[in-house]
Amino acid sequence: MQHIFQKGDDPSKPTFLLLHGTGGTEQDLLPLAGEIDKEANVLSVRGNVAENGMPRFFKRLAEGVFDEADLITRTTELNEFLDEAAEEHGFDRDNIVAVGYSNGANIAGSLLFHYQHALRAAILHHPMVPRRGIELPDLSGKNVFIGAGTNDPICSAEESEDLKSLLENAGARVELHWENMGHQLSMGEVKAAAEWYNNL
Ligand code: MLT
User: Fold this and answer.
1) DSSP conformation class of 181
2) What's the total number of domains in the chain?
3) The CATH number of the domain where 76 resides is what?
4) Is 110 a pocket residue for ligand 1 (Cβ < 6 Å)?
5) Is 102 helix (H, G, I), strand (E, B) or coil?
6) 3-class DSSP state for residue 189?
7) 60 lines ligand 1 (CB under 6 A)
8) Reduced 3-state DSSP string for 28-93
9) What's the rounded Cα separation, in Å, for the pair 40 and 37?
10) Which helix or strand (DSSP H or E) is residue 166 part of?
């Protein structure tokens, strides 16, 4: 997958897996990594799907309606890419913290829903529930931050609560942080995520 890798100064620190929103690129979230932890590695990936030229991580049938078969295929593809990238760039495969926004948060959520060992933790900005009606892996010991909007037109407050419950029922520790700026990724939310990360 097309990506940027930046080696951090401290090998004990995690690798941030940056996952952009629809129409974004692997450049978009680079400043976020610096806000959270300047010493961590950064692996920023571009989605392999194009929707009218806009990069995404999986296909959708309409806004908010996912192509489930493609979501599953692309989740596997990203998980395998993480194995390869860890080998190629020499980082710890078991210490990846996803940082995703919107469509990128949705594929990060899907990694958690499908693979027990894909991520150590995740910061999900404005995620949806990636799939319903499936059994999640045991996510004990995983930490998840959800940045949600009380008035997010793409993801209802109820869906954000549902995602929290589904992850918690699988054993994850989840912090749900609310803003009221619609689907936007606000600086307040980034700062809250950084504070959460620093208290892990
Ligand atoms: C998605 O398709 O992942 C969500 O609708 C969020 C978006 O990318 O607009």
Assistant:
1) S
2) 1
3) 3.40.50.1820
4) no
5) coil
6) helix
7) yes
8) CCHHHHHHHCCCCEEEEECCCEEECCEEECCCEEECCEECHHHHHHHHHHHHHHHHHHHHHHCCCC
9) 6
10) helix 157-169
Distance 24 CA to ligand 1 centre (A): 12
What span, in angstroms and rounded, lies between the C-alpha atoms of 71 and 59? 7
Ligand 1 atom index nearest CA of 60: 2
**Given the DSSP bridges, would you call strands 143-149 and 173-179 parallel, antiparallel or unpaired?**
parallel
State the residue range of the domain holding 32. 3-198
Q: List the catalytic residue out of 67, 70, 183, 186.
A: 183
Reply yes or no on whether 140 is catalytic. Answer: no
Q: What is the pLDDT of residue 88?
A: 98
- Provide the ipTM: 0.95
Those residues whose C-beta lies under 8 Å from the C-beta of residue 55, and which sit 6 or more positions away, are 20, 22, 23, 24, 25, 46, 47, 48, 49
What tens-digit pLDDT sequence spans the chain (200 residues)? 999 999 999 999 999 999 999 999 999 999 999 999 999 999 999 999 999 999 999 999 998 899 999 999 999 999 999 999 999 999 999 999 999 999 999 999 999 999 999 999 999 999 999 999 999 999 999 999 999 999 999 999 999 999 999 999 999 999 999 999 999 999 999 999 999 999 99
Q: Give me the torsion for CA of 75, 110, 46, 58, rounded to 10°.
A: 70
